Amino acid sequence: MPNDQAHVSFERVADGHLPMLHAWLSEPHVRQWWGDPDKEVALIRDGCATGEVDGFIFHVSGAPAGYIQSWTPSEYDEEPWAKDLPGDVPGVDIFIGPPEMTGKGVASLALRAFAQTLFAAGAPRIVIDPDAGNRRAVRAYAKAGFVPFGEWIDASGRTLLMELTRTEFERTT
């Protein structure tokens, strides 16, 4: 289990990462929530290339541990829950790649480190939108300081909307 002093670093996604991302996205613990690996790798590649997402491989103490991205929810009509969010509020998505790294506090550690960079860049608030049934993710996000602020229910299921404000982040850092 990483401790709070474990070093987290971020490396911008490059073409050389795509095979590793595909392998991670093929793992049952990721595929269950992210979907088809071929489709998701294409979305990550294209989103990073166009600037729609800012995607990174994150490392914990030097070991590749997963994928994290930021995006602007208010720019997506397919995210009706985000229509009232200001443009300076980023959304974050994350997954732990290697199965042996799940359940060890890696996601919350990486989220705190990533939040630090987003707040330093001026974000007043960060949102994350896990499937409400993904209890492991919801626990990890709560451990990182995110709190529920709403939910969205549609044909694809129930989405829990969670946020971390700069004020709360600074209070707990």
Automatic annotation (TrEMBL):
Q: Supply the PANTHER family for this chain.
A: LYSINE N-ACYLTRANSFERASE C17G9.06C-RELATED
Q: In which pathway does it act?
A: Siderophore biosynthesis
Keywords in UniProt for this one? Answer: Antibiotic resistance, Transferase
Q: Which InterPro entries match?
A: Acyl_CoA_acyltransferase, Acyltransferase_MbtK/IucB-like, GNAT_dom
BP terms from Gene Ontology: response to antibiotic; siderophore biosynthetic process
Looking up Gene3D superfamilies in the UniProt record yields: 3.40.630.30
What is the organism of origin for this protein? Ensifer oleiphilus
Q: Name one Pfam family in it.
A: Acetyltransf_8
Residues of the N-acetyltransferase domain: 8-167
Its lineage opens with: Bacteria, Pseudomonadati, Pseudomonadota, Alphaproteobacteria, Hyphomicrobiales
Q: Name one GO molecular function term.
A: N-acyltransferase activity
Q: What is this protein called?
A: Acetyltransferase
